[in-house]
Amino acid sequence: MKAINAIRMLGMSQINEANSGHPGVVLGAAPIIHELFKNHLRITPSHSDWCNRDRFVLACGHASSMLYATLHLAGFKITIDDLKKFRKWGSLTPGHPEYKHTDGVDATSGPLGQGIAMAVGMAISEKFIAARYNKENYQLFDHYTYVICGDGDLQEGVTQEAISFAGHNGLEKLIVLYDSNDIQLDGDISLAQSELTKLKYQSMNWDYQLVEDGNDLTALNNAINNAKKSVKPSIIEVKTVIGYGSELAGKADCHGAPMGEEKTKFIKETLAWDLDDFEVSDEIYEEYKVIKEKGDILYEEGLALFKSYKKDYPELFLELTEEIEVPLVEFANDVDEATRVSNGKIIAELSKKIPFLIGGSADLTKSTKVKGADGDFTASTPTGRNINFGVREHAMAAIANGLTLSNMKAFTGGFFVFSDYMKPAMRMASLMKIPTTFVFTHDSIAVGEDGPTHQPIEQLTGLRAIPNMNVIRPANANETASAWKIAVDSKTTPTCLVLTRQNLLNNENSTYEKVLKGAYVISPEKEELHGILLACGSEVNLAISAQEKLLNENIDVRVVSIPSIYMFEQQSEEYKQSLLADVPTLAIEMATAYEYYKYTKDVMNITTFGASAPGGVVVYKYGFHTDNVVEKFKIVYEKRSKTTD
Amino acid sequence: MKAINAIRMLGMSQINEANSGHPGVVLGAAPIIHELFKNHLRITPSHSDWCNRDRFVLACGHASSMLYATLHLAGFKITIDDLKKFRKWGSLTPGHPEYKHTDGVDATSGPLGQGIAMAVGMAISEKFIAARYNKENYQLFDHYTYVICGDGDLQEGVTQEAISFAGHNGLEKLIVLYDSNDIQLDGDISLAQSELTKLKYQSMNWDYQLVEDGNDLTALNNAINNAKKSVKPSIIEVKTVIGYGSELAGKADCHGAPMGEEKTKFIKETLAWDLDDFEVSDEIYEEYKVIKEKGDILYEEGLALFKSYKKDYPELFLELTEEIEVPLVEFANDVDEATRVSNGKIIAELSKKIPFLIGGSADLTKSTKVKGADGDFTASTPTGRNINFGVREHAMAAIANGLTLSNMKAFTGGFFVFSDYMKPAMRMASLMKIPTTFVFTHDSIAVGEDGPTHQPIEQLTGLRAIPNMNVIRPANANETASAWKIAVDSKTTPTCLVLTRQNLLNNENSTYEKVLKGAYVISPEKEELHGILLACGSEVNLAISAQEKLLNENIDVRVVSIPSIYMFEQQSEEYKQSLLADVPTLAIEMATAYEYYKYTKDVMNITTFGASAPGGVVVYKYGFHTDNVVEKFKIVYEKRSKTTD
């Protein structure tokens, strides 16, 4: 119990020092994380990125101080000094665990619901990679994915989507430890929930176990051992007491407010803890050495196995280890097809070269053409790279993040308007700096008959506003191919591909090198630059046809294609200014398009919802046709002439 | 069966004529909607807004042609001619059902998952209003809320949140008819799901029934009758055949593509249908007259009851019928408190005057101070106006929309960063033109220690981009009070209130009349206008302190508070120009702030994620302190001077 109390007290010390944090869960759930780390998790601080390590996601990220304390005891790169800087500027121990920021943290967590869904992605990755690469005598991959979660996590819809999905796909190496303390921020869980937990999870093909006393390590140990043997994903409901050992035990008041000196004294007495704040005895460190010792041995064994595998399966070994040159899929310049169609072809091509390219659609494969290779991923065909997510957009995005966290090249597919459902997980990708690819089709009012519920308006603006999110809206097949190469090459930035339902003519000027700059001249002015039409996606060809008509009226404009504002913003000032000269400029986008005001005062956009009618009709009625663009540009042009007069 | 086939064939005719739509569900689920409308729904086309009518939500909105056909037969204001214009420009019969656009449509639907969750809100409204106003011999309110949904709806996380919530709150008058045809867009449901449906819904306190043959009207009738008597919400799983009667029966191919002439001929033969396209026999119209006849009688009875109630309970009658003057809650000008705190006081005040003000938080009541009056709404205390949504943000927003659709003044509460989870439902409010109020607190990096997962950056931009969404970010208590009055007065626009965790000093210039304009001079220039600082929320006081310092350097600026870009954009050009003169202007926002580029080239914003540290530290480190604002403004000012030189 000493190590458990060390976790508890290190947690209290951090929270008190920061005067901020969540003590309740730390005091209650410490035995769970202790049992898991000490006796089950196959990890080692010597190699915290070991590819066959067990994964651990702290879904209830507000218990961060508990994780940091445990990682410290286990020998990861978190010192007592780091713990003292909990929730302070620039520390390694931020308010919620952050991936790649802190050694030993497998996923950023905090926003409830994301954790379990990401863990599902990690478990798919293990199942896929084991099925593809393990051979007789070569059990290269056989790790588990563990989650600790709370009541709130399970109330989230995204979790329920992920649970249903995981049960269906028989992800037997996924083990969720449910810190069931019956208390939420607002009070007793009975304020908001009354479910038959066992029945609910069993109905979704999960194995359910109950540990009646969270302090009963033997029971915990047995439950985890049983879960490891289960042929289904497992949830272990562990009854705990929030704020265990404190005078607020069992009360919601200890959820989110620091204990402070007095209450901490009380805890120390209850737990018979006689060490100082931030003090840990050698005895406890000694107890935790086993993690590194066992982990190092397993790591070395795995390494040896891997070396021998190299000899017996040189090609598979190469697949596993080589850095892949992502090809640029080529299209004829006269191709006239929807970018969603080009996209389908590109995925098929890339899948041949990239064994880790995996993904699928949220029950829209036929519409989006977003489909993985090698058949469907299922419990019985785990080498399939097409994932049928069902109508579970949010979980799809979070699961894809979990796949990416496990070094897969994951992609998702859906209608652009329903990116709304996925946004919280997309933000997580940006925040974790992981390159998940989110493919969206049906990108504008051109969707047509399905009407305003299915026509995106504000989505481009909303997604472009996410820090570190590369939103690419290609104008044709060549741009789509370039966008895919950029997405798959990306190391630290997720990508959104925003594609059309309607045909778009290809353009030979749309080279990869140009697309990489975010914006470029797709159709130059003839002689003298009178103005610029700035657009992306389906509006680029519209701009080009307006350009022709304007030239007939002796107005000589340049058309700039801007598939990615994100990449354009990273260019030099010189490049930006060379592209967007100080001439009348009209930006054209069938969307809110706030973001273009940075480049020009004149934006042709949509600030109302769409309408139900054939796509061409809607687009025309909303003014996105050549004559109207010409008209609108001439107004801009003449306004400027007057100002200059 | 003739009426059922009439629905089927009117559906086919519409879809064929439009060459767009979803025939599969129409052919399969027609008996369900028929049985429901003909024998159960208490509605009348004479008064489609009858307050005690049964509510009906077609969660699978892609079955719109089926609903339009049924509403036509039932005598609602949809003519055969309207059906012929299905999915055409300007028609009454758009691709998915739209609230207030088409007579008899109780809610916009199409985005899967929204329907059931909105229906939950409607059922709460019934339970609340019945409990508050029904008296002995006065059963004023006793209507049911019915939903038809498909597999996809139930896979959505928001639905699962709503189901769990409805079971917990014993919403016994909610009846979901589950069109269970085992087929999704991508194929058999077994591609994506394998659940024990009965167990799952029973585990969440729902009553479950199975109708094994969707064409068995007696079984359907019995099941609905049982559901009406149940003390729990009910789900009736009705096994149907997608594309029933067609050569594609039971196949995914008939989900989303029109049948066309040949296949329709086949259906006509199978169903022994001998009428022309869009033709309905008198016999069928005759059969459906019962809906109006029964409905009219019930309506008149209800009206009579209501008149008599007026005499016996004049005060309650008044409550139910009077147009309420929404008060402006007053604050002292020296109040220095977080706008979330002012907000809590305002809700408490308004609740005294407005009996239909109802809402709550997603397990963040203590943090957001968003709490309804009169205790908790529960199965046993249905007059409570505080709803404990649990950690179910998305369902919270959709449920609130359902409440608003039932004439309640509904509000929600949560952290601003988690508005992401609610976005799809918030968009629905904007699209339906209903005035739900979404309250958010913890509105910026000033959140502090909780770190980047909890610090909104792009959310303001994303929400401001939604058409018909009034995002108000008040700078102080007075602005918050004004914002609340605007929100509750609103008839056709939902409102987001974006509030702080940290204290803000009140300002006497922040009058209701000024806030109503969206932007106004909160602190005027002294003598000569040298420039403008434009800000909202917590940045307004920052701007005011920078204004003072600038004046010391003889730079005389005006501070404009812009709590709502949405309202500001509706002002006259004169007003806009009077406020934002052509002088050096710096917009200041601790967020992405793309939208300010419309007003000025110079925006002090944040385009990265936040950080974990005490709020004041984070805000300082990100440059949002007086000296830096002064510095930044001077750069803008000097740049302009040079240009003018």
Outline the structure in words:
The structure is a homodimer of 645-residue chains. Chain A has 645 residues and is of the alpha/beta class. Chain A has 24 helices and 19 strands. Chain A has a 5-stranded parallel β-sheet with strand order 1-2-3-7-6, sandwiched between helices. In chain A, α2 crosses α9, α5 packs parallel to α7 and α15 packs parallel to α16 (419-432). The radius of gyration of chain A is 27 Å and the shape is elongated. The termini of chain A are far apart. Chains A and B meet through α6, α7, α8, α14 and α15 of A and α6, α7, α8, α14 and α15 of B.
Strand order of the largest sheet of chain A: 1-2-3-7-6
Helix fraction of chain A, binned, reads: 40-55%
* CA-based shape of chain A: elongated
Mean pLDDT of chain A comes to 97
Question: What's the total helix number of chain A?
Answer: 24
Largest interface: A-B, 107 and 107 residues
Low-confidence stretches of chain A: none
Number of strands of chain A: 19
How is the main sheet of chain A built? 5 strands, parallel
Q: Assess the beta-strand content of chain A as a share of residues.
A: 5-15%
Described by its quaternary structure, the protein is homodimer
Spatial separation of the terminal alpha carbons of chain A:
84 Å
Q: Give Rg of chain A in angstroms.
A: 27 Å
Q: What structural category arises from helix and sheet content of chain A?
A: alpha/beta
